[in-house]
UniProtKB/TrEMBL annotation:
Naturally occurring in which organism (per UniProt): Bowdeniella nasicola
Protein name in UniProt: Alpha/beta hydrolase
Gene3D superfamilies, per database record: alpha/beta hydrolase (3.40.50.1820)
Phylogenetic placement of the source organism: Bacteria, Bacillati, Actinomycetota, Actinomycetes, Actinomycetales
Length: 201
């Protein structure tokens, strides 16, 4: 996996259908710096409609993605996720349509939750990210899909200050800090492109 952290993308192995899963209060547009080079390399970028800015219950979000996979008859899909989007992605990989997913590249996903989540008012969709919640417990449950996840974490995340590694996943620790800043960092963009090629190797 060391090759994934290089600055130059690998030669394209194959073209993929890539589903973008943004984080809370985000839209796929927030990941456009990551998807632009992937689109140029021939990958098809998909946006699942009406994800309610990731504020809906996890089961509802998972079902929206599953319905999109089935409706479009997609297979060998790569999920490109940021923050809570990675938690949604793992739920999809563990679910009934998980066989359609080749792998997931997840950036700054709070696998073990964030202690700041408990500071938010109930109903804002954030408190479910507190450590020990049902959502976080499900994300940390060992599953064969963990081996198909590339987890990319910043050197420091002001939104997720504690340890954010997912056991069993391929971990890439960046030298760049920031929860959102990494989404437009040139080296991170290249690392994401390499991770996509890793699943096609």
């Amino acid at each position: 996996m060391a090759r994934l952290a290089g600055k130059e993308p690998l030669a394209r192995e194959r073209r993929h259908d890539i589903i973008v899963l943004p984080g809370i209060y985000e839209t796929p547009t927030d990941l456009r710096e990551l998807t632009r080079p992937l689109r140029r390399r021939g990958h098809t970028i998909h946006r699942v409609p009406h994800l309610a800015r990731q504020l809906a219950p996890m089961s509802w979000l998972r079902e929206r993605v599953e319905r999109y996979l089935v409706a479009n008859d997609l297979t060998s899909v790569i999920l490109l996720a940021h923050s809570k989007g990675g938690l949604v992605g793992k739920q999809v990989m563990m679910g009934a349509e998980g066989h359609r997913i080749a792998g997931m590249v997840a950036l700054a996903t709070p696998w073990q939750g964030s202690r700041y989540a408990s500071l938010f008012w109930p109903g804002l969709g954030v408190r479910s990210l507190r450590p020990g919640s049902a959502m976080i417990s499900a994300a940390m449950s060992p599953h064969e899909s963990d081996a198909r996840i590339v987890s990319i974490q910043p050197s420091f995340d002001p939104h997720v200050p504690q340890h954010a590694h997912l056991p069993g996943a391929h971990q890439i620790d960046l030298t760049r800090p920031g929860h959102f800043a990494i989404l437009s960092d040139r080296d991170v963009i290249a690392t994401v492109a390499n991770a996509v090629d890793f699943f096609g190797a």
